[in-house]
Amino acid sequence: MSSHSEAPVVPVEAPEPPYYVAVFTTVRTQEQSGYSETNARMEELVKDVPGFLGMDHAQTPGGLSITVGYFRDADALTEWRTNAEHRAAQKRGRAEWYQNYTPHVAKVERSHGFTRG
């Protein structure tokens, strides 16, 4: 969701399946007043959801952003989706910050990771 230049760039370690992913693809509008602050708050808030496993984020030079949230189970994902503060941020996003967006939710049954030694 935000870039942390002081931290090394590494993807979220592959959790033991099954788990859920929420993939949020967006293109933002020119109006971004308050976005950074709200985004930072959402990053902190989601960490309090029991079953939240981590998040990856990438952005293309053309403006497409992709955020992937990892959740242990469907209940954790539902808790995040229905959180009142998150719902308010979603509403503001539709009104001001996003040209368009698409959320995708999937249950992951197989995953693995690789790290160069």
Descriptive key words:
globular; single chain; alpha+beta; 4-stranded antiparallel sheet
How is the secondary structure organized here?
Layout (H helix, E strand, L loop, with lengths): L18 E10 L6 H12 L5 E8 L4 E8 L2 H9 L1 H14 E11 L9
Antiparallel strand pairs: 1-3, 1-4, 2-3
Number of strands: 4
What structural category do the secondary elements indicate?
alpha+beta
What would the principal axes of the Cα set say about the shape?
Answer: globular
**Largest sheet, spatial ordering of strands:** 2-3-1-4
Overall pLDDT, averaged?
A: 93
Poorly predicted runs of 5 or more residues: none
Task: Estimate percent helicity.
Answer: 25-40%
- Portion in beta strands: 25-35%
Rg, Cα atoms, Å: 15 Å
Total of DSSP H or I helical runs spanning 4+ residues: 3
First-to-last CA distance:
28 Å
Order of helices and strands: EHEEHHE
State the major sheet: 4 strands, antiparallel
